[in-house]
Amino acid sequence: MKVHVEIGETCQLRLQHAVLVYHSSHRSFATLHDVMKPKDGAPLLGPARPLSLVFLRRLAEGLGSQVVAEILQVNILVRTPEMLVWWSRGSRIMFFGETDQEARKLNGRVFPHPPLVFKVRGRDLYVRALAKNARPEAATRLKTAPYWNVAGEDGRVCLGTARVPDEVSVSSIPAWESAFHKSAFTHALGAVRLTTHPGGFVGLWRSLVGRKHFPARYLVEAKETLAEFVVTER
Prior knowledge:
13 strands, 32% strand, three-stranded antiparallel sheet, alpha+beta, 16% helix, single chain
């Protein structure tokens, strides 16, 4: 069959293989079949063959899931065709929305932040916090990121009008972090408590003006490990 791609070219696609997927109550498996083309009639499936990693890799590349070779930085935790996970630390300027007058008084100040774990899957950004300023391991317990615009339940960030990168790559990490930190934190997202500070969210950040370190005692348990944060599809 012929298809027209968006750039205006015409290409010829030929049916070459078919994958059949079988399911039972306990397991699933798939077989690969060559497609035979008789002179008359519909195409026929050839004998079943087991799927190979080489075939799956080529199929993934053809579907646009190829990962370009990159030099991984030391802060990279996970890299797959669909996902990028890294951790970050340092002080940042923060801005707050217009809905809370007390929060607006803090606009443009530099605040210490807890170490953060970022995850980008597709076009979605997620963030969690760390209690210790050290590279997390699979079993490391994560904390809820203490920010408005972040859902405490799963760490999903409401990006709103934030300008995010068009790609998910190691080189795009600074742009993803900038999109998060330079956006205006406007509202609580979800019902999970963001901090144990007695003054709540605004009281927490007000208390951090002029300080160099974020006090981990004000972080809330996220009830998941780094491994769970990575593998959970949201």
